[in-house]
Design brief:
4 strands; two-stranded antiparallel sheet; mainly alpha
Length: about 575
């Protein structure tokens, strides 16, 4: 094995080792926060928490059923969307606009503001614009950064409520959304973001409100260097599994992601909290092994993605090598930053596509067909490999329930999970959740392929690659991920509206059935374990879980992948 391959393996191994080491202590801390047990930050945040409840008149002791919880979540999200839309549409008359306003050349149209507001309120942060040429400093900080905190905490609250549904019995209560939101913000997202942002500033990420700088290049030309409060946005966008970027090229820009250390730190921020929720689950249901089997299943699938993505990117493009124009000794470096190389770019591609965080540091549009197809597959699997903050846990739990239903059919028993019966109502909710992705993604992709508005976005590529660009866009939007194949020109009324539809359904069309299912489980008692109970805390169940995820995903999307990434690979290697 070449030294570059060994260095890639070492980087991946260290990253996963750090994740494994952090899951248990962070899981313990999150559990204490949401079970309102003492923590070392209580002296600082409890007075602030009480003040917030007093101002907003929230009764912290009042819990909600799943309907009330869902209504609170949806209302909160849409109010945030509306306020962000107002900020974006009026940014030219708001303070701080003069600092960088003269460089904002992308018009803030109503459809772009609508798309962006929904994007950030659903943690998708799909960007059909270049941040440094579209957003004022106030829009970036007060609008986008604040929404990154709020939307991330909202998703975390839904994940915690779902876990409570599995942990509780004989009740219809899942907690209080407003309390979960506040505690997630104060005890988890805010302190970690402050620490992470300071580390980024230490590494050279700017945090200022200075005007853009005009410089003369070495060849006598003129260049505008954008800057601003970048560190404020950068860490929370990853920690809250939001994504997006202050700049058009996102984490490939040296001001957002200047060093291999910042790349490692930002990728760690994406993964750790969603991974730790498996430990929270094990603690709250009083069965730690249940959480660990979910975590290790996720980790094995994550490692598999790293292996295959790295393999195809290290091989490079045989058509280029055959022409003799470029010797690809370093692998496929097209669209990648030399300071990260193939290994750092692959780690980011796999992390962001699994973590519902479109914070890429390379252009996935320039990956090899299969190399670019693997992040697409990760998103099509439905946030089950760590996934988004909160949303990732109930995504993997849904697959576990499908696996148990299939196993129950095979052995002729009513499926159960943690002593909770998976009956007719539960199965209907699970199927509603599962069918939403193929219905939305494939329908919108087909619509784009047969309409002039959809085809107009293919300004760079057509054929199999163009098909993948469109499929990637709707998959990313529905998965609330936000990354894209940049060859698709998406800032149009058609794409701004249709991707917004995908984002809304991907957020609320999945969260509401998940809450309803949690309510169904919470209302049940807990059946005793018998000889006929299928164990769900061993390696066998992990294998069943992983196989179910791949089979369900394959049945839904393999034909589409065949028309895109697979066909393009065959054409490249003919």
């Amino acid at each position: 094995m070449e030294s570059s391959s060994w260095s890639s393996v070492a980087q991946y191994a260290v990253f996963l080792a750090v994740v494994v080491l952090l899951v248990k202590p962070i899981g313990a801390y999150i559990t204490r926060v949401f079970e309102r047990q003492p923590t070392f930050l209580d002296f600082l945040f409890r007075p602030i928490e009480r003040l917030i409840y007093k101002i907003t008149r929230v009764d912290a002791g009042l819990e909600m059923n799943w309907r009330e919880y869902a209504i609170s979540f949806v209302t909160f999200s849409f109010v945030g969307t509306f306020l962000l839309f107002l900020i974006l549409k009026t940014q030219s008359i708001l303070p701080l606009f003069s600092l960088n306003g003269e460089f904002l050349v992308t018009p803030m149209t109503a459809d772009l503001a609508f798309n962006t507001a929904i994007s950030f309120a659903t943690t998708t942060t799909w960007q059909a614009y270049g941040g440094e040429t579209t957003m004022s400093y106030l829009s970036q900080v007060i609008g986008l950064t604040v929404q990154n905190f709020l939307a991330g905490a909202g998703g975390l609250a839904i994940g915690i409520a779902f876990i409570r549904g599995l942990a509780r019995r004989d009740t219809d209560l899942l907690g209080n959304f407003w309390v979960d939101l506040v505690r997630g913000l104060l005890w988890i997202l805010l302190p970690l973001s402050i620490i992470g942002s300071l580390l980024l500033v230490w590494q050279g990420v700017p945090a200022n409100f200075l005007p853009y700088t005009q410089v003369t290049t070495l060849d006598g030309g003129s260049q505008t260097i954008a800057q601003g409060p970048i560190a404020v946005l950068e860490f929370i966008k990853n920690l809250g599994t939001n994504g997006g970027g202050f700049f058009n090229v996102n984490g490939a820009h040296p001001f957002e992601n200047p060093t291999p250390f910042t790349n490692f730190l930002e990728m760690l921020a994406i993964v750790v909290l969603p991974a730790a929720l498996t430990n929270v689950f094990g603690r709250m249901v009083k069965r730690p092994r249940q959480g660990w089997i979910l975590f290790w299943t996720m980790t094995v699938l994550f490692a598999a993605g790293l292996f295959f993505n790295s393999w195809f990117e290290q091989q490079g493009n045989p058509l280029i090598s055959n022409e003799g124009a470029v010797v690809q000794t370093a692998g496929n470096m097209e669209g990648k930053e030399t300071r990260f190389g193939v290994s750092g770019s692959v780690l980011t591609a796999i992390t962001t596509s699994n973590g519902a965080t479109g914070s890429y540091n390379s252009m996935h549009d320039s990956f090899t067909p299969i190399g670019g197809g693997i992040p697409l597959i990760n998103m099509l699997l439905g946030e089950i490999i760590y996934g988004g903050l909160g949303t990732g846990f109930y995504s993997i739990a849904m697959v576990a329930l499908i696996a148990l239903f299939i196993a129950g059919l095979m052995i002729g028993r009513t499926p159960e999970y943690l002593g909770k019966r998976i009956g007719i109502i539960e199965i209907k909710l699970i199927m509603l959740y599962t069918l939403a992705a193929p219905l939305v993604i494939l329908s919108l992709t087909a619509l784009a392929l047969v309409t002039s508005g959809g085809l107009a976005g293919l300004t760079t590529n057509d054929g199999a690659h163009g098909f993948t660009e469109i499929l990637y866009a709707y998959t990313s939007a529905f998965a609330n991920n936000g990354q894209n194949f940049a060859g698709l020109s998406a800032n149009s009324i058609f794409y701004n509206v249709t991707t917004a539809v995908a984002m809304i359904i991907g957020r609320f069309g999945l969260a509401i059935p998940a809450l309803a299912l949690a309510g169904q489980f919470a209302a049940q008692g807990r059946r005793p374990v018998t000889l006929g109970t299928l164990p769900t805390d061993g390696i066998e169940f992990g294998v069943l879980l992983g196989a179910t995820a791949l089979i369900v995903g394959g049945l839904s999307f393999f034909p589409a992948l065949t028309l895109g990434a697979i066909l393009e690979h065959l054409l490249m290697t003919q």
